Automatic annotation (TrEMBL):
PROSITE patterns found in the cross-reference section: PROKAR_LIPOPROTEIN
Protein name: Tripartite tricarboxylate transporter substrate binding protein
Family stated for the protein in its record: Belongs to the UPF0065 (bug) family.
Protein source organism: Candidatus Lachnoclostridium stercorigallinarum
Highest rank taxon of the organism: Bacteria
Pfam families to which the protein is assigned, alphabetical: TctC
4Fe-4S listed as a keyword: no
InterPro entries linked: BUG (IPR005064), Bug_dom1 (IPR042100)
PANTHER family referenced in this protein's UniProt entry, alphabetically: BLR1237 PROTEIN (PTHR42928:SF5), TRICARBOXYLATE-BINDING PROTEIN (PTHR42928)
UniProt keyword annotations, A-Z: Signal
Leader peptide range in chain numbering: 1-22
Amino acid sequence: MKKRWKKVAALAMSAVMTLSLAACGGGSSGETAAPADSAAPAAEGEEAQADASDWTWERKVTLVCPWGVGGGADGTLRPLQPILEEELGVPVEIVNVEGAGGANGVNYAYKQPADGYTYMLGTQSLIMLDLQKILPMDFKAEFIPVSKLVHSILIVGSSAKAMEGKFTNFDEFIEYAKSHPQELSCGMLTATGADSVAMKQTLAGGLGCDVTEVENYVKIVSYSSGSEMSSAMAGGHIHISISGVDEIKGLIDSGDIVPLISLSEERMSTYPEIECTGEKGIDSYIGTWRGIFARTDTPAEAVAAMDAAIKKAWDSPEYQEFLKNAVYLDREGYQTGADFQSLIDQEYVTFEEYLKGAGLM
């Protein structure tokens, strides 16, 4: 009989707790001896391998993307698809189910059989939807992380026209905002998304105020698409916006967007001239991650086999080249489901605090 994921999840949680007590932040290595009947990290790794080898791929695998073709989420899957097909030995189909901020795609994936052949791409947006009770199910209970693929760095940018006569860098933007309340504007894709949390954390850190007070200084303008927001900023209709560096790299390189600060602990290797929030003592490091999820009751050996195939695909020269070109290598990308779950749990806390503080929960 196939083992169920709940057993694996329990073992994975034991591994995470063991690692936490050892104050380690990477993969498990079975450093501490354990009784034969206890769940030691090394034994768990061996069981995960056994589960993966027990699964045989027999037909097409579907990857559900809850966002449209051509967006950043979809763009993460497209270069992975052919490599994953080769690893699995069966066709891999990407199905885009957009709408409702990702909720439609989650609902679609939830309604598919949990037979090991349907997986879903997820981002922080799903955490925000879940916290606000917008999803038609309990996301944390019904879905498990399989593998994390990427973790990008967000950038606050402007344009030459938007900056003209007002500021030339992040510090000058902050000083101008303090002396000219609500004259400057900031573009966001959604007022309740991860980008909003990140932007308000960054501005609050610079302004020296609470996140709930940011709009006393800077007007927030919401847009329905990244291209619309970038066009507005290039035209000087808004003064700053926030985007993943992977999404605006071309605009930075062309000079259409002038980067002011990256939301990262250290300066990026690709753009070492851009200041970062870490060096200014601003606790604002949220970046967009994207990873693969499965229904909780998906066979454990299928989940393990998918994770193993994703790791091989992620390590391939072709995908590594994609990651390099998209500026994804400054942060840890691939993570197993257990490590990925730890990051998700941390961000549930961060986003819940933000939503409650902003009166949105």
